[in-house]
Amino acid sequence: MAEENKSSNFIKTIISNDLESGKYKEIVTRFPPEPNGYLHIGHAKSIILNFGVADEFGGKTNLRFDDTNPVKEDTEYVESIKEDVKWLGYDWDNLFFASDYFDYMYEKAILLIKKGLAYVCDLTPEEIRDYRGTLTEPGKESPYRNRTIEENLQLFEEMKNGKYKDGEKVLRAKIDMASPNINMRDPIIYRIAHATHHNTGDKWCIYPMYDFAHPLEDAHEGITHSICTLEFADHRPLYDWIIKECETEYVPKQYEFARLNITNTVMSKRKLKLLVDEGIVDGWDDPRMPTIAGLRRRGYTAEAIRNFCKEIGVAKAASTVDSAMLDYFVREDLNIKAPRTMAILDPLKLVITNYPEGEEEILEIENNPHDENSDKRKVPFSREIYIEREDFMENPPKKYFRLFPGNEVRLKGAYFVKCNEVIKDEDGNVTEIHCTYDPETKSGSGFTGRKVKGTIHWVSAKHCAKAEFRLYEPLILDSEEEEEENKHFLEKINPNSLVSKEGLIEDSLLSAEKGDAFQFFRHGYFNVDSKLSTKEKPVFNRIVSLKSSFKL
Ligand code: ATP
Ligand code: MG
User: Fold this and answer.
1) Judging by beta carbons within 10 Å of its beta carbon (0-12, 13-18, 19+), is residue 488 exposed, middle or buried?
2) Which fold is adopted by the domain 261-336?
3) Active-site residue, 34 included
4) Ligand 1 atom nearest to 32, measured from its CA
5) Distance (Å, rounded) from C-alpha 422 to C-alpha 435?
6) Which residues take part in binding L-glutamine (predicted)?
7) Which of 55, 109, 363, 527 is most buried, by the most CB atoms less than 10 A from its CB?
8) Is the CB of 438 within 6 Å of ligand 1?
9) Class at the top of the CATH hierarchy for domain 2-257
């Protein structure tokens, strides 16, 4: 992609050196999601890094489903991941499923057994944990560690043939129970799971563990640079051990970078799934979710997400990024793309008493001041309009420049109006404002006679339609206080994360398509909700407000 990261990072430096030294003629990277949930913005960082470096250095990237756990995986997730990667703007060179390599992995396990480097262990999961030792104490060897190669081959075959129950036996690599690296203390490489796999069905009842499967998947595909997040750094010696002892043709190398964390956001499929399962959100694509599907439905653009990821860069030290920074890039992008229009979230009727009854006119208002090619749009104006309730005050404080009795303001793109009368109901609530307008003051007419300090937006009563507006706040409330910090994330849900308002739009917006984004004067950027909106009852999501608390 042309706009891709030109700025450098340590991964690019490694790749560039490997190409220059002739170590590789072409690099191959992969994005390896486990299809056990929808992708989130953290995955976007990994996608953009993996596809980005391959694009920049003329290499290839595989999309590989790391589907070695039959219990949690699902084809719904497979499909959503493909859609999300494409939407972000990337196309894979190959689409692979790790489960297609189960035969290859099984052969490699046999090879390890034959080399005396793997054994079937009958310890219970608890015993295995106890025997493993701690960071300060070495582990203890399993009593099954010295089974003969023949016995191991037979038992492993029986495991494969379904003779044993889940958890009854495992296959372990025979490495070093005294290693200072706990990952090297005879890790489990195969377990028994009598479960139907989304891809291989009931063909297998033994499944490879991540630490064994992942390096073999990389080797099988000829991956050169296997990029993953920091928590796998301690697993790298095991990765290298598997590659070496399995005698693979290709020798991939693992490199680790810091995962993306964002304030006010949970970033783990396990937690996001809980939000969905508990009904706290309306599915994986709820506009409050940090999933790619949620961000897309909310109206965040792929461009903004790419620019955000480019800006945060790729580092080796973990850090947390302010969520306002992502919003900043969304605003930057929509500022150029989104047509301007007017919507009233909390309507108050305004009657222009000296405007001829029954008459109307078409005003021309700029569509997008940041887009030279943008046309003016035609906006009907008439005697009765609606304004925002908060744009009128009967007893205003000092420096209130909007409408109040006796004051004159500009109606955006139209005329000056002056408030003469306030109509109230029996309870004293303001129900209508009566104004007079000055025909001389039409917008664009060059009128210089006098100035007003406030401009307010409006919609014509005869030319508007009802709409629902959904206003969002962060789903999770972060806190600096320790007691708060230690709370379970479900206790930190923001009760105001979604506020719905019934208001009015210019009726021309009824023809907007799902997903279309607009800037509503003063309220921010909104898009037409792809799930809930109908022609009869449009629903708009606020993508971001106009105010930014973040500067680059
Ligand atoms: P989660 O904890 O959210 O389930 P995961 O790491 O288990 O994430 P995978 O499907 O295994 O999810 O991830 C696919 C790739 O995305 C991996 O290479 C992983 O390192 C990367 N990744 C996941 N989360 C992040 C993140 N927050 N920032 C950057 N990369 C990430
Ligand atoms: Mg995972």
Assistant:
1) exposed
2) Glutamyl-tRNA Synthetase; domain 2 (1.10.1160)
3) yes
4) 14
5) 9
6) 66, 210
7) 527
8) no
9) alpha beta
